[in-house]
Inverse folding.
């Protein structure tokens, strides 16, 4: 469980960056925020682990490209801590956005940092009951070396392709480096209709039963529903349509 659940008013923050000017600037911006109670700094991932092990922190603002252990590896280790801090990546490179998404980073801030952007990252650190249901959450997808961001609300259904998943929107599809099980866990507004398919409940237009065979209709797309998932799908659709 994140220590943010125990820190309702103020946050203990750790800044990790091997470059002293960048580290100092970010630490200064964070110290000016009244929501931050303390700011500590580390010049390496190894030092960050020592600090975090000695005294838990609520959030880690972490550079990615550092000598020795990089920020991605550091975030993976911090994710195994009993008091798991929230992660905000602060980097000059956008090529790690997919890794950040997989690690459930709270934010991905591009350098050079700006006061307003840092303040927004701090706001995102506070727990929100609506965060898991936020349709405006974006998913980073890579295409020919370019990272694009697709809104979750645009995704109609997802198909498994080995260890990857293909996101289908109305106009196109995107292959992302994460499993169907990961997306099913993270996206509560999607439901599994087949061992290899998730569908967005918001995009389901009709449910058909024909001689024991179940299908769901999206706009212009019809998808088969396996017998084992038919009941859950019907219940989820009924719950969605029921008045509060």
């Amino acid at each position: 469980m994140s220590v943010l659940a125990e820190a309702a008013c103020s946050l203990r923050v750790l800044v990790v960056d091997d470059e002293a000017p960048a580290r100092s600037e970010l630490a200064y911006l964070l110290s000016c925020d009244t929501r931050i109670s303390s700011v500590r700094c580390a010049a390496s991932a190894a030092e960050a682990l020592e600090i975090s092990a000695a005294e838990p922190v609520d959030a880690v603002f972490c550079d990615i490209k550092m000598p020795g252990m990089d920020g991605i590896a550091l975030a993976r280790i911090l994710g195994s801590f009993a008091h798991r801090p929230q992660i905000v990546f602060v980097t000059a490179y956008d090529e790690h956005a997919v890794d950040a998404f997989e690690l459930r980073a709270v934010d991905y801030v591009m350098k050079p940092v700006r006061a307003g952007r840092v303040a927004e990252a701090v706001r995102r650190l506070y727990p929100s009951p609506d965060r898991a249901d936020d349709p405006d959450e974006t998913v980073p997808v890579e295409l020919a070396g370019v990272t694009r961001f697709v809104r979750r609300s645009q995704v109609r259904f997802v198909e498994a392709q080995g260890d990857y998943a293909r996101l289908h929107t109305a106009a196109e599809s995107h292959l992302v480096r994460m499993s169907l099980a990961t997306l099913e866990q993270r996206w509560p507004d999607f439901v599994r209709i087949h061992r290899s398919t998730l569908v967005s409940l918001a995009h389901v237009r009709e449910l058909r039963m024909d001689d024991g065979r179940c299908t769901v209709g999206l706009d212009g797309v019809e998808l088969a529903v396996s017998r084992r998932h038919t009941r859950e799908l019907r219940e989820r659709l009924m719950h969605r349509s029921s008045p509060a």
Observations:
- Residues 1-8 have pLDDT under 50 and may be disordered.
- Helices lie at 20-31, 45-54, 71-78, 97-102, 115-125, 180-186, 227-241.
